[in-house]
């Protein structure tokens, strides 16, 4: 029962994080450059970098998007920061699932290991 509450709280926290980052991106894009932009981009890293390298840059090459970085306005900044935060959530979930799998297999590996003589 405790694990269910923990998972529910983790899901609520992940949705709140993604929503807050997207709203922050929308506000930052609507009001122009501000000193809090660095904080916003810091919160959405490394997911924002993964998004740029594996999604946005190939799309720009395919569709010949040679425009500047500020062409999209507030909506594109909110979308980029929100998707970067979503990628961060997925990366963290992957790490947690991997750690759980290793923890589950570790006793069996220790049992199979034979002492070197």
Structurally, the number of domains stands at 1
Number of helices, where a helix is a run of at least 4 consecutive DSSP H or I residues:
4
Largest sheet: none
Structural class: mainly alpha
- Helix percent reads over 70%
Strand content: under 5%
Query: What would you call the shape?
Result: elongated
Computed Rg: 20 Å
Q: First CA to last CA: what distance?
A: 46 Å
What order do the helices and strands follow?
A: HHHH
Mean pLDDT: 82
- The residue ranges in which pLDDT falls below 50 over 5 or more consecutive positions are none
- Total beta strands: 0
What this model shows, in words?
This protein is an all-alpha fold and 117 residues long. It has one domain. The chain has four helices and no strands. It has helices at residues 2-31, 37-43, 47-62, 74-112. The chain starts with a helix and ends in a 5-residue tail after the last helix. The relative contact order is 0.14. The chain crosses the membrane at residues 12-30, 77-102. Keywords: Membrane, Transmembrane, Transmembrane helix.
